[in-house]
């Protein structure tokens, strides 16, 4: 393939291109949303018993006697914090690609200077969601003779191996018709006794249309840029009193007390964003 400045390592396999190194990062001017910690509501004995009876009613084999008559000796309140972190990253890969050339203008190598992979502007449709797009790098295209058919736009038919015919599937190539379809001569009605039929794909010519160049005999080669935005998510639960499972805390409703979002720009064209939030879950476990 042709040599393109800045794409010397490009091949037909995708090659990841690291972003340019910058000594400083530009930070966004977004404000941090932080709410004061709410006060812990005090759960009364009546409210605790009603909550326990409600939970028992959702279990088919649980009895209500213990929940209704047991003595609640102490109620301990605690807070649980659920931290979540979302990091939005961008990855760029390049590779050579080709397709049929059907005429028309082409941004050839000698028409201009190809921009570097990270100099091509592109914005994700939305932040913190996975997206992938493919672009053609300008001034990397060239027109070449199809490497499969060699230029004619046709190649040997794979169905009949270039013979132009294939054996008859109705008589299995022996030329005799099945009993239900036999004529007076007992020849197969589909192949007239020859045991062969004209190839359905090439029409008996032994040559079929080249799918790579769509019959034009030429292909357009270019460097394809693939941009992939990925949202990475992680979380952490802090709760030290009730020893509840982290999954139970993740699934309950709560109140957001802190939410931050910041965008860092390694260069003016490559946004990388991250946001974090802290949710608080107020619980009131009790002992009996």
Task: Describe the protein.
The chain has 288 residues and is mainly beta. The longest helix is centred in the first third of the chain and has 13 residues, at 45-57. Strand 13 (255-265) and strand 14 form a beta hairpin. The chain contains 3 helices and 15 strands. Strands 1, 2, 3, 5, 6, 7, 12, 13 and 14 form a 9-stranded antiparallel sheet that branches. A two-stranded antiparallel sheet has the order 4-15.
Number of DSSP strand runs: 15
Question: What is Rg?
Answer: 35 Å
Biggest β-sheet strands, sense, barrel: 9 strands, antiparallel
Sum up the overall morphology in one term.
flat
Gap between N and C termini, in Å? 78 Å
Structural class: mainly beta
- Strand fraction equals 25-35%
Number of helices: 3
Mean pLDDT: 79
Order of helices and strands: EEEHHEEEEEEEEEHEEE
**Helix-residue proportion:** under 10%
Point out poorly predicted stretches: 267-271, 280-288
Organism: Larinioides sclopetarius
Biased composition (Basic and acidic residues): 24-34
Protein name: SSUH2-like protein
Region (Disordered): 21-41
């Amino acid at each position: 393939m042709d040599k393109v400045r800045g794409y010397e390592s490009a091949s037909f396999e995708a090659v990841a291109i690291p972003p340019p190194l910058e000594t400083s990062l530009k930070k966004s001017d977004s404000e941090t949303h932080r709410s004061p910690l709410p006060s812990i509501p005090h759960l009364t004995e009546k409210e605790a018993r009603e909550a326990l009876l409600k939970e028992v009613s959702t279990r088919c084999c649980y009895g209500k006697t213990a929940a209704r008559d047991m003595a609640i000796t102490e109620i301990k309140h605690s807070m649980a914090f659920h931290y979540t972190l979302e990091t939005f990253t961008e990855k760029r890969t390049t590779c050579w690609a080709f397709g049929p050339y059907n005429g028309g203008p082409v941004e050839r190598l000698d028409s201009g200077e190809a921009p570097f992979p990270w100099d091509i502007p592109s914005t994700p449709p939305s932040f913190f969601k996975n997206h992938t797009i493919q672009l053609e790098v300008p001034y990397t295209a060239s027109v070449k003779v199809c490497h499969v058919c060699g230029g004619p736009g046709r190649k040997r038919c794979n169905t009949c191996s270039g013979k132009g015919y294939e054996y008859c599937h109705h008589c299995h190539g022996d030329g005799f018709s099945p009993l239900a379809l036999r004529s007076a001569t007992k020849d197969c009605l589909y192949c007239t006794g020859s045991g062969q039929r004209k190839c359905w794909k090439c029409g008996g010519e032994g040559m079929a249309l080249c799918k790579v160049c769509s019959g034009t005999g030429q292909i357009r080669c270019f460097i394809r840029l693939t941009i992939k935005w990925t949202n990475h998510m992680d979380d952490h639960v802090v709760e030290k009193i009730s020893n509840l499972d982290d999954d139970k805390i993740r699934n309950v409703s709560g109140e957001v007390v802190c939410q931050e979002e910041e965008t860092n720009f390694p260069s003016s064209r490559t946004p990388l964003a991250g946001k974090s939030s802290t949710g608080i879950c107020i619980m009131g476990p009790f002992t009996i």
